[in-house]
Amino acid sequence: MAGDDFDPSQFSKNQQEALGTYTAVTNQEPSAAIPLLERSQWNVQIAIAKFFDGEAPDPVEEARASLASSPAPPPNSSRQETLMNGFSRSPRPSNRVRLDAAPRIVPQSESQQVYRTPFILTVFLTPFNLLYRLLSGSLGFLAYLFPFLPRLLSGLAGSRAQSHRQRDTTRRRPLNAQDTAARFLREFEDEYGQHELTFFSDGYAQAYDLAKKDLKFLLVVLLSPEHDDTSTFVRSTLLSAEVVNYINDPQNKIILWGGSVQDSEAYQVSNALNCSKFPFAAVVAHTLEDSSTSMSTVARISGLVPPSAFVAQLRSAITQHSAALDRARASRTEQQATRNLREEQNSAYERSLAQDRERARQRREEEEARSRVEREQKTKAEAAELAIRNLEQWRRWRAQSIAPEPLASGDDITRVSIRMTSGERVVRKFRVEADMEDLYAFVECYGILSRNLTSDKAVEPQGYEHKYRFRLVSPMPRTVHDLTGGDTIGNKIGRSANLLVEPMYEDDDT
Fold first, then answer.
1. Which helix or strand (DSSP H or E) is residue 179 part of?
2. If both were cysteines, with which of 85, 397, 414, 462 could 458 make a disulfide (CB 3.0 to 4.6 Å apart)?
3. What is the value of pTM for the model shown?
4. 30-39 vs 44-53: helix axis angle to the nearest 10?
5. Phi then psi for 283, rounded to 5 degrees?
């Protein structure tokens, strides 16, 4: 089920959701995550805790495996077990030595620890608490009555406080993990001078997580400043050229973390790694043979050892477990390359899809713009055609209301010579009391009147307001005779006049 071929359909919906949550947090492949989830009964919190803190061996499963692997006794044989052979029987040796699990240590400062008195002890101490309060009140009342008593008691209290402060000077102020690491490095350089070792500049938990993520070896060095061998170990072994070159060699993939057991974090790490003697060093690595998430202590170096022996033990532990880590690292690299290729393919597909959507959007916009231009042109053409029809109908309607030309000449007659825009000169007589608009209407309707196309049946177009697109001008001196004021022909131009018809345009304001 946990092979390379992963089929989500063989799991239930709850199991698929648990698998998705676990892989999102741990970034593990489903093939490696499924066995751990099965061992955790598909509980996501337990599986994530096992991944980060390491998976301890299951005693029930070990017992089942030992029972299944033990040979069955012969059916007809009987054995009388005595006290001697019961104690002398030794267990069957195993092919592989099980390593000690290396837990992930997150230090907790003393200020965060809450101490709570048990309930039974609280009930037992209640009478003493009441008695203490009663005595405190009585002493306060006596101090009020006799003011010299507090001065006598203050001297004793001051000496006790001074001795308490002297005892507190030996304690180290608790800091967070990063500041604790910085303090250790600063004290290490102050004590032993400049060196070429590259200590991890954060807490043990962060170094632990980095070694597990990058499949590297975590070398933990724990020092006790009060131990007699600490200075000798650091100067002759840890800072020797042979040890420094081996630790700093990138091919060994070592993360170096150090700490002083005077700090809470390093003290907790020493207890977790079963430190029995100082100075102490341990190699922690990701042991895939135990489980896909376990971190184990693969080597311990205790006490004062020479540099050659120190390097030999490191080399032996690293050589023994490098092959498995190299295989896991290659598999992880291949999985990451496959994941990157899949992401690049998805990204290329998304970009291609976005380009197709952009081209489709541009085509829609171009079609909409072309349709809009066509509609506007059609609307303008229809409006122009309607304007021409309305103008022609208005001319026919207005021509039938123009008064005929007077035949006789006299004081009430005005003779006008008009040069049309076509160059034709037209001479017409008007009565002096006729409106100036009649002269403009004559010029506008001259084409209808000259061809005798007037009709009594013409009607005024509905919703059409006629505007004259020309003006009448006297050339010398130049005088514009417009319709402003609505005066008569006689008042505007007198008894006779020579007029020119000048077309007007929309941008002509004169």
1. helix 177-192
2. 397
3. 0.46
4. 110
5. -110, 120
